[in-house]
């Protein structure tokens, strides 16, 4: 090992034991080389075409399946999330790569459009052909709480590669070995498919992260993590000579409202579901409901009683790392200091060496819900705010920063209540969930995972097929000879949906099927 | 007039004469009131629906036609662009409003998607229904060089209103009365359609502009103007507690390349077209070619000779305002000081009082083309860079900041040259024009007007139907009762194209037409 090199350590959150890994912090020279390799790979990865990249994504999915046992074991040692959750998460990652391969083959994500030359009310107009192209190398910041689905093997990597963008991942220091094993699985698939090596790279360490964001070869940044770090990264991006798109998913309180009708009709069901939703994965989910509005009165009382019983009987949760566990205690303490009451707290075995915290239920009222009480607390904590009338809610909602989701529990005969709550919540969230819970994000075509700042930047999704759009940019060929056009923009091409002279044209087999 | 109120002045660039107008700078209290009125109008404007907003856009187009004579006369007095250009520009604005009305009626801009509930490889999944919603009130900054098409009556206003977003325009101080007359035309249409008054507002003055950007009700900013001002506005946006999307179109050099084959085959045609393109509208177009690469040798010499003759014989151009005229002289002087040679310069009648500058042709070589020589000079100036081999070009391209467009003039038998130039230029522009000129931007479905920073932010267009996407955000209803869903997301709705369970479904009449 050369002088000045720093080895990366890994810590088992179950025991608190730290050990030195085989990986070291990436040096400035290495960051530069990785970014340049990514840049060099850009044109070649684009030229592989949709089918070539779809095959790559399928091969990466296969590679994760092959390495499943080692990946899950490594991730469990570094995150304490347990084999069941981690196996499910890896399955989600694998599914995601395959879904994006399907989207590439289907091809309408290209938004191909042709306006033929012709006379218009504004005079003779040229031939324009538009489609989306890869934006260029993407810096992907892995998240602590999803060692697979929002890390090296995650949606950002999958969507960037689908778009045709090489990826340089910043490995999260909470799971360096999981990151390394995941990278190896991708590298293997890349090599087997004959795809340029610079398609995937990885850096370790905070300094390397900063250098990566500043590197001229990097054309977009995606980050899932804390608001404070996200804000720092955004400032770095905007200090570049060329500010580039920054896709941050930063903070989300995910308010949940239970109407009087729902509290009466589904008291036990809602209490059980809510407990599972705020404590699942140790409450370390971006869509964890952080505040729940429950009506005053006997039905609400009973709902809170059940929640409290579940909380008090609840086992301690091993959190991902020491920082998160300490921050949990700090913020929980602050919420109480600011006026929230401790309704219930589970047990922790104080003798345990790991990063264990107790599930915690706090209460307040909607009219007392100040901005101080809507600080996001990452971990198994829920603030229940009791309310008398719906009018209490409108004021309370103003105290909640915009979020990824909001949830409404209401009965069928409360249609007006539905509509009123929807109108109040819609402007500040990206998804509204009815009579269910916001955790457990479906990976599909129609999913949207985003919302106004600080949840994200409003306009893009970090989950689902549309997340690919983050890493694409429109491009137009004007009066181009057909030899220089991509196949998808030539006359007569009919394998994908396109808009031609303003009209959507479907591939013949799809158009036929809609008539059946 | 109250104490402290400042009246806005207007200047006729043909004479330099300044006069006081009836409008005054908007006070902080007025900015606040306008932004709040816009916020209050948001839900109501959305509820008007696609057909209601399409009718509004058509009514605005009609209103501009009704007011055409006054609008053009006012704009001519404030910009000196002349009735022919201004009539054409107003026609473009009118066309744009009508095209966006058509896009609203067609409805696929909503990107409606439905994933029905069901079993998936990841378990039981909920029902998700996604479409795009208005992002909220938009601050639109009018540009000096397009008193209609990029100002109050411009594409940003049209696309924001189409999206369902109320607009507060910052009037450009170069044409306050044109802005006021344009606003009046829109206000009239808004009132006649029974649309909320807060749908359109306007502020005057730099302080008001700053207050507008900082106002919490504003949810997106669009700006067309200088890089320096754009950078300032971006910083203000990012200092907000909630950074919001900023769509800036800032600076563009629009390189143009003439191959040896083209220089030989179309010497006169290219010289004439290039002269018209860099001097049209006084060279005050964002797509003006600012640098042209012409081969060394007799064909290139002849092309430059013709360009020089046209330039020397060219009349002076009245620029939009004193600042632009002074800046033109300053930058032209700087380019010469940095090593460009004056190849030719037209006449200006020095006795004229207005803001007149001479068309200017500078020359250098591709190998001498430093970053100093690629500073954008707004106005009728072109730098011709002579080159020997294509390899000279690659180095020279690196000196050019990313642009909206690039243009390639080449002959049919130069296919390889085409491809090589395309690959070199594509990463840093949003549109490549073949054998034509980048000015005269077609307004249509497939147009893209954008490129990497500093031309724009890469991912969005400020011209054409897709420009509406800037002011929309995705939103998902999960497991929602059909009563709370918008019509476009209910089962059985078939008036627009939608993606259902991953498959594009066309309205029956469209699907049929593709089979003919």
Low-confidence stretches of chain A: 512-516
The residue fraction in helices of chain A comes out at 25-40%
Mean pLDDT of chain A: 95
Count of individual beta strands of chain A: 23
Count of helical stretches of chain A: 15
Q: Which pair of chains forms the biggest interface, and how many residues does each contribute? A: A-B, 92 and 92 residues
Strand composition percent of chain A: 15-25%
Largest sheet of chain A: 7 strands, mixed
The coarse overall form of chain A would be: globular
Sequence of strands across the biggest β-sheet of chain A: 15-17-18-13-12-19-20
Structural class, from helix and strand content of chain A? Answer: alpha/beta
Q: What is the subunit organization of this protein? A: homodimer
Q: N-to-C terminal Cα separation of chain A, in Å?
A: 67 Å
Q: Using the CA coordinates, give the radius of gyration of chain A.
A: 25 Å
Structure characterization notes:
2 copies of one chain form a homodimer. With 516 residues, chain A is of the alpha/beta class. The first copy, chain A, has 15 helices and 23 strands. Chain A has helices at 28-47, 49-66, 68-79, 83-106, 155-163, 176-192, 206-214, 227-239, 260-265, 267-279, 298-313, 322-337, 390-397, 415-425, 508-513; strands at 7-11, 18-24, 113-115, 118-120, 123-125, 128-134, 138-141, 167-170, 200-203, 220-224, 246-249, 256-258, 291-295, 317-318, 341-345, 356-357, 360-365, 381-387, 403-409, 429-434, 472-478, 498-500, 503-505. Chain A has a 7-stranded mixed beta sheet with strand order 15-17-18-13-12-19-20, with helices on both faces. A 5-stranded mixed beta sheet of chain A has the order 21-6-3-22-23, with no helix packed on it. In chain A, β4 (118-120) and β5 form a beta hairpin. Chain A is globular and about 75 Å long. The first copy, chain A, starts with 6 loop residues before the first strand and ends with a helix. Residues 512-516 of chain A have low confidence and may be disordered. Chains A and B meet through α4, β3, β6, α8 and α14 of A and α4, β3, β6, α8 and α14 of B. β20 of chain A pairs parallel with β21 (472-478) of chain B.
């Amino acid at each position: 090992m050369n002088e000045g090199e720093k080895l990366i350590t890994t810590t088992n959150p179950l025991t608190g034991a730290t050990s030195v890994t085989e990986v070291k912090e990436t040096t400035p020279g290495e960051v530069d080389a990785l970014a340049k390799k990514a840049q060099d790979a850009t044109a070649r990865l684009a030229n592989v075409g949709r089918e070539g990249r779809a095959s790559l994504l399928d091969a990466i999915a296969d590679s994760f399946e092959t390495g499943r046992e080692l990946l899950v074991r490594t991730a469990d040692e570094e995150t304490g999330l347990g084999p069941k959750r981690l196996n499910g998460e890896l399955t989600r990652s694998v599914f995601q790569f395959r879904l994006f391969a399907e989207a590439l083959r289907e091809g309408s994500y290209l938004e191909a459009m042709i306006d033929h030359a012709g006379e218009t009310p504004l005079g003779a107009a040229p031939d324009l052909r538009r489609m989306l192209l890869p934006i260029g190398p993407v810096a992907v910041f892995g998240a602590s709480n999803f060692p697979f689905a929002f890390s090296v093997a995650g949606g950002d990597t999958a969507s960037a590669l689908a778009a045709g963008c090489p990826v340089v991942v910043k490995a999260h220091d909470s799971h360096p070995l999981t990151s390394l094993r995941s990278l190896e699985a991708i590298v293997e698939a890349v090599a087997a498919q004959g795809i340029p090596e610079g398609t995937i790279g990885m850096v370790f360490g905070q300094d390397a992260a900063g250098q990566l964001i500043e590197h001229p070869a990097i054309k977009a940044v995606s980050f899932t993590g804390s608001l404070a770090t996200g804000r720092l990264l955004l400032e770095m991006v905007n200090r570049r000579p060329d500010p580039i798109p920054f896709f941050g998913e930063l903070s989300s309180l995910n308010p949940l409202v239970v109407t009087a009708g729902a509290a009466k009709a589904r008291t036990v069901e809602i209490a059980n579901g809510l407990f599972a939703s705020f404590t699942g994965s140790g409450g370390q989910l971006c869509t964890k409901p952080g505040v729940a509005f429950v009506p005053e009165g006997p039905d609400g009382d009973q709902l809170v009683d059940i929640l409290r019983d579940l909380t008090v009987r609840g086992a301690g949760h091993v959190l991902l790392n020491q920082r998160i566990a300490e921050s949990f205690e700090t913020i929980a303490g602050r919420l109480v200091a600011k006026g929230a009451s401790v309704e219930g707290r589970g047990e922790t075995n104080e003798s345990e060496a790991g990063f264990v915290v107790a599930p915690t239920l706090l209460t307040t009222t909607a009219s007392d819900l100040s901005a101080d009480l809507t600080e996001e607390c990452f971990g198994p904590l829920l603030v229940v705010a009791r309310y008398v009338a719906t009018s209490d809610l409108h004021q309370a909602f103003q105290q909640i920063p915009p979020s990824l989701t909001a949830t409404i529990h209401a009965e069928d005969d409360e249609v007006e209540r539905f509509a009123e709550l929807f109108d109040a919540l819609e402007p500040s969230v990206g998804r509204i969930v009815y009579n269910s819970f916001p955790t457990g994000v479906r990976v599909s075509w129609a999913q949207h995972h985003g919302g106004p700042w600080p949840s994200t930047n409003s306009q893009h999704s970090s989950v689902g097929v549309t997340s690919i759009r983050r890493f694409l940019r429109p491009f137009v060929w004007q009066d181009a000879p057909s030899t220089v056009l991509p196949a998808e923009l030539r006359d007569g091409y009919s394998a994908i949906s396109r808009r031609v002279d303003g009209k959507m044209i479907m591939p013949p087999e799809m158009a036929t099927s809609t008539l059946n």
